[in-house]
Every structure is written in C-alpha cells, then in structure tokens.
Amino acid sequence: DAGGDADAGGDSGSGDLITVGFAQVGAESGWRAANTKSIQDTLTKENGFDLKFSDAQQKQENQIQAIRSYIAQGVDVIAFSPVVESGWDAVLEEAKAADIPVVLTDRAVDSEDESLYVSFLGSDFVVEGEKAGQWVVDEFGDEEINIVELQGTTGSAPANDRKAGFESAIEGHDNLKIIASQTGNFTRSEGKTVMEGFLQANPDIDLVYAHNDDMGLGAMEAIEAAGKVPGVDIKIVTVDAVKDGMQALADGKFNFIVECSPLLGPQLAEIVKQVVAGETPEKRIITEETTFTQEQAKEALPDRQY
Ligand code: AHR
Which residues are in the Periplasmic binding protein domain (predicted)? Predict the structure, then answer.
C-alpha cells in the first residue's frame, strides 16, 4: 500500500520507520544551514525516521511541487517551512484529503483554516522584532537616529513580523526614523548590494536593522568598503545569532543580536511521533530565545553550536 495511512506509523515501504517529507525553504543563510542540519541529524533511521528532504531554493512553486510529491508517495507526515505566508490553502487541502498531517516548522502560513495543519513549531518573530526595537529605544534615548532596514524575503512571516515588531517598539519615539527599507532576501550578497545603495543615497545613516545576521554581515562589508567603521560609525542590529554573526558582535562590528534558534529538529521529531501515535500535539509551540550584547557574545561564542 503506497497510499499512505497517516495513522499507521510508516507503511510507505520503509518498514517500521516513520516516513517524513520535509520541504525546506532553501539554503539562503547560516541559520537555514543550521536548521537543515538539525532536522537531518535528528530525523535519522537510527531514531526511527525515513526522511525525504527537498530544498526549494526560495521558490514557492518548488515547495508546492515537493509537498505534492510527498502526498503522492504517501508519507506519514509532511513538515515544511513556508517560504512566504500566503498561497498554501490548495496544497494543504490536498494533504488533508489524503489524510496526511502537516507540521509547520519555523514559519507560519496565513490560512484561516487552522485544521490544515496539526502544529506550528517556531519562533515568535514579532517578539524578535520588538526586542530589536526596544534595544534601539533603550540605547539611544532622545538622540536623532537615522535607521535603514534590510528586510527578509518579501511576503515571508519573519520579514512581515520582524518589521511590525520593530516598528511597534520604536513607535512614539520620533527621534528614531526609518529612512529606507528594502528586502535583501535574507542573503549576505543581497544585504551587501542593498546596503551599498543605501549608503550612496543617504550620507547620514546611524544604524542598520537587518532581519538576519547574513544581511547584517553583507551590510558590514558594504560599510567597510565605504570607508566607515561598522559597529561604531554605523551601528548594526540583527536577528539569528549564528556563529558568524556572534563573531561580528564579539569583534565589536555588530551591536546587538536577537536570537532565533534554528535547532528545531528534536522538537519536530517529538511532534511527528505524537501525531503518528494518534496523539494531539500542541497547536503552537514557541521556541525559547534570548538576546546578545557584545560582552554576552564573547562569553557565548566558544560553546555556540551553530
Ligand atoms: O525563518 C527564519 C529566518 O529564515 C532566519 O532568521 C533567516 O536567517 C532565515 O533565512
């Protein structure tokens, strides 16, 4: 039977293993690489899983195609990290009709029908944006600060939410002005290119708010190439806390990082096991995260896993 009985704990040709189809966003950032590793290292045969993994190269149509192929293969559970928030209802309805439970990991969908997925595991991106904004509020008091924002992938949950959270934290502080905001698609190279444009158009930038470390690292390179000192002439605040970002923070080139944990593999494995056992996992599981100053980064760096 290749039709896939979602409750049977693996009857898609892999013995007693639980078959999981995982449709990853891509390999756009250090965060994503660590997230992929966490999932692949956890959902192993030794741990009772048969993992089918695909990389959508940041394209929604590729993710939809991968999910359709998992449905056709009759996997026990589908998990995915949606590249953008909207446009998932049709394929999720197909999974539901095939009786294959779906677990959202890392990113949300904007579907109104919550029965289209069993659980959503990941960060609260609004809170992450708020933490970044609050640091800026606390750090600069009444000083006039010109901020440029490097947004994540347009339409993605972390870009939407980190923007909204940051804006709500600085609201009412008229001295803190976002003078330019553009997507850098969560990549280092686009972060650099967009920052070069910002620097050419605005002689007076005080702070970069980047929605992830990689774009912050790209901005750092652009700032250095423009003959300015990142972390001093232009402050940098980012989200993620991957090793390269933490190194820049410890070196004084970044000023503050809000953590976003990519280590979702173990919790995903638990959710999948629960679902296959016929149990109901929690609908929303929020990842626990902290923040880092330059001093805290120096302390944390030696033990950083990713
Ligand atoms: O969805 C999580 C975000 O995606 C990370 O913050 C970013 O680095 C990644 O590309």
Answer: 22-279
The count of residues in the chain is 306
pLDDT tens for 2-30 read 333 334 444 445 679 999 999 999 999 99
Residues forming a β-bridge with 286: 122
Instruction: Tell me the CA distances in angstroms from 80 to 20, 55, 83, 117, 132, one per residue in order.
Output: 10, 10, 9, 11, 27
pTM of the model: 0.94
131-176: pLDDT as tens digits: 999 999 999 999 999 999 999 999 999 999 999 999 999 999 999 9
Mutational pocket test of ligand 1: of 156, 212, 213, 257, the residue with most ligand atoms within 8 Å of the beta carbon:
212
Residues in the ligand 1 pocket, defined by CB under 6 Å: 28-29, 31-32, 106-107, 158, 186, 212, 239-240, 260
ipTM of the predicted assembly exceeds 0.95: yes
228 CA distance to ligand 1 middle (Å) = 27
